[in-house]
Design goal:
Blueprint (H helix, E strand, L loop, with lengths): L2 H6 L7 H10 L17 E3 H9 L3 H10 L6 E4 L2 E5 H9 L7
Antiparallel strand pairs: 1-3, 2-3
Pfam families: DUF3853
InterPro entries: DUF3853
């Protein structure tokens, strides 16, 4: 098949061989694929958000918040509670104090 004919043919109608032929003729090379890292912060909101984050009940989520263990991850303005989920999980996983 001619390259000009391939350029006019819709991609969804091309076979794999035709698509590869078109890409090679245009000089497209395989670019190194870098992993995509999501740098945006993930937040959960309120006590229900904390309970979903930790997979626990609402009363247990209240106890986790009141314990102060995840205070660095919590921003509270009035009644609105915003929790940085990654930081909260990291803080909850740390051991604090010595148990006997």
């Amino acid at each position: 098949m001619n390259i000009n004919e391939l350029k006019e043919k819709p991609i969804w109608q091309m076979t794999g061989e035709e698509l590869l032929c078109l890409l090679k003729s245009e000089g497209v090379k395989d670019a190194p694929v870098s992993p995509v890292i999501d740098t945006s912060k993930k937040y959960v909101y309120g006590i229900p958000g904390i309970s979903k984050l930790f997979g626990c009940s609402i009363p247990t989520a209240c106890r986790i918040k009141k314990s102060g263990k995840i205070d660095k991850a919590i921003t509270q303005i009035g009644r609105k509670i915003i929790v940085d989920s990654e930081l909260a999980i990291e803080l909850a996983g740390r051991k604090s104090g010595v148990r006997r």
